[in-house]
Amino acid sequence: MVKNIVDFFKNIPAKQCTKCGSYIEEQHECYGNHCDDCIEIQDI
Predict the structure, then answer these.
(1) What are phi and psi of 20, to 5 degrees?
(2) How far is Cα of residue 28 from the mean position of the Cα atoms in its chain?
(3) Confidence of residue 9 (pLDDT cuts 50, 70, 90)
(4) Three-state DSSP class for 16?
């Protein structure tokens, strides 16, 4: 059981881009899995 929710979020490991493997500079608990360089912008 998690004793302190702040400690839980502080201890989440840094995310890595699934395409190039570089570390993503964002909150580690977010859903993104690509770095800014690998994100493909699509026109709608």
Answers:
(1) -110, -15
(2) 4
(3) confident
(4) strand
- Which residue intervals of 1-44 are DSSP H helices? 5-10
Distances 42 to 1, 20, 39 between C-alpha atoms, Å = 41, 19, 9
Say how many CA atoms lie within 13 Å of 27 toward its Cβ.
Answer: 4
Closest CA to 33 of 17, 19, 21: 17
Q: Which residue type, as a one-letter code, is found at position 17?
A: C
Taking the model in full, what pTM does it have? Answer: 0.56
Query: 33: which 2 tokens?
Result: 């899995």
